[in-house]
Amino acid sequence: VQLQASGGGLVQAGASLSLSCAASGRTFSDYAMGWFRQVPGKERELITAVSRDGNRIYYTPPVKGRFTISRDNAKNTLYLQMNSLKPEDTAVYYCVADAIYARILTAQVNYWGQGTQVTVSS
After folding, report:
1. Which has the least CB within 10 A, 9, 73, 79, 113?
2. Is 61 exposed, middle or buried (0-12, 13-18, 19+ CB in 10 A)?
3. Which of 114, 93, 96 is closest to 105 using CA atoms?
4. Within 13 Å, how many C-alpha atoms sit on residue 15's CB side?
């Protein structure tokens, strides 16, 4: 499956930003999806994941209550709504896919998108 993320940009602290990830090549609903982020010098960090049917969702504690993951299986698209952004949210954000939800939770993901930069100024 090919993944194309978009929607990154530069915003001020407290603002909102929405990311999208368009999937192609395979049946979107066959894959669990998620978002990772990475800052220079650090490992990629899982921030949120959603199961194939949308019934299971995980958020890492630093973003819980501020970020919302959603998917539209009819449009083959994954979304990440980010509210109340903080400077520490600055990172490259990657959408990911795997047939097995647990593999996303353990960062053993098969498919990665190209990343989109999110920069939050103070």
Report:
1. 9
2. exposed
3. 96
4. 15
Other Cβ atoms less than 10 A from the Cβ of 35: the count is 28
Q: Among 67, 85, 69, 76, which residue's Cα sits nearest to residue 29?
A: 76
pLDDT digits (tens, 9 = 90+) for 43-64: 999 999 999 999 999 999 999 9
Residue 78: Cβ-neighbour burial (10 angstroms; 0-12, 13-18, 19+) = buried
Whole-angstrom distance, CA of residue 49 vs CA of residue 38? 16
Tokens of 46: 């899982």
Q: If you search the block for the tokens 């090919």, which residue do you land on?
A: 2
Distances (CA, A) of 65 to 69, 82, 85, 104: 11, 10, 11, 20
Query: What number is the average pLDDT over the span 12-24?
Result: 97
